[in-house]
Write a structure and sequence with these properties.
alpha+beta; 10-stranded mixed sheet; 4-stranded antiparallel sheet
């Protein structure tokens, strides 16, 4: 039989963070709905709304420039090299740029040969999301994670079905409570513009080590796993450690539980956020990280690991080196 079986689950967003004020419109888009239905783990976060402003077009260089700001924070210059954007490269020669001067973003339309199709589009959050993935044609915003840092308000899962049903299609009490109770983060702002929905998929990497004389069976190599149990355990891990303000059940006895991974055949299991974003709570912060070019998890992310009854949080750059992954100090690590 296997000597050890370990797992690390990367949480990846299936769609850019959605401002609550935009959620109703997105529910009417079948392509967006299909993407959101691939998620069964979600978070709700808060941050002052961002905006794009001071647009300038350089037709000779094929550039669109603007400033990216959050609340009353500093301006961050951004340059879009229009013809390097993948959607534009695939479009015809005739383009029209439509800028939302309220600051939410812009769209580039392909109007070649009588068409009227969107070649590229950017909201403020999609800009951060694309930049984190090192998408071609975007220059600036090098410190994406500092801009994509949110107050963590709620963590939830879809025990049955998916995040679209749980968070959007039906009434969601915590989401309603947040909209009713959260204070403005910037004077004059709408709380609905400062509340963001994050739809994650749980992507597990399972590693099994076998004895040298192990007699392999087909089931050893099947790679089967119970996705909903992993999702349920991930919820308990994040809620118990970060204690988001709108979660009522905090799973104080985690890792113990009946629908998670406690008592399973995993010797060790863990969780990380494979995104260049971070979440803050009064009980601590949790930072994600990922290699933008490959999408692989890297040592820039904090991680949670469970072994038996012991839960540890390892913080990148504090408990282990963010480049090599080598431990920087011994000890029992925790948030809070």
């Amino acid at each position: 039989m296997a000597v050890t079986k370990s797992k690390v689950t990367a949480l990846r967003t299936v769609y850019p963070p959605i401002a609550n004020s935009h959620a109703a419109a997105l529910q009417e888009d079948p392509e967006v709905e299909a993407l959101l239905r691939t998620s069964d783990f979600y978070m709700i976060g808060g941050r002052a709304a961002a905006k794009m402003s001071d647009f300038e077009t350089d037709t000779e260089k094929g550039e669109l420039r603007c400033n990216f700001t959050i609340g009353d924070g500093p301006a961050h210059p951004v340059t879009f090299h229009i013809h390097e954007l993948p959607g534009v490269k695939a479009a015809g020669p005739d383009l029209k740029i439509e800028i939302d001067h309220a600051g939410s973003g812009f769209r580039i339309w392909d109007i070649s040969d009588g068409k009227n199709e969107i070649a590229e589009w950017f909201t403020t959050e999609k800009l951060l999301w694309d930049r984190a993935r090192e998408r071609p044609g975007i220059e600036g915003l090098d410190d994406v994670r500092s801009l994509a840092t949110y107050d963590l308000l709620y963590v939830g899962i879809a025990k049955v079905g998916d995040s679209f049903d749980r968070l959007l299609a039906r009434g969601h009490k915590a989401r309603q409570d947040i909209l009713a109770s959260e204070p403005q983060r910037y004077p004059g702002a709408r709380v609905s513009d400062e509340t963001f929905l994050f739809m994650f998929a749980c992507d597990p990497l399972i590693i099994s080590q076998f004895d040298l004389d192990h007699d392999f069976e087909e089931s050893d190599l099947a790679g089967d796993y119970e996705a909903k149990r992993i999702t349920a355990d991930a919820e308990k891990a994040f809620v118990s450690l970060l204690k988001p303000g709108y979660n009522k059940q905090l799973f104080a006895h985690y890792p113990k539980g009946t629908d998670g991974l406690y008592g399973s055949d995993y010797t060790r299991y863990g969780y990380t956020i494979a995104e260049k974003m971070a979440f803050n709570t009064p009980h601590g912060s949790f930072r994600g990280g990922v290699d933008g070019a490959t999408g692989m998890i890297n040592n820039d992310a904090d991680c949670i690991f469970v072994e038996g009854d012991v839960v540890q949080v390892f913080r990148s750059g504090v408990d282990f080196d963010s480049i090599t992954g080598a431990p920087t100090k011994p000890g029992d690590y925790s948030i809070g």
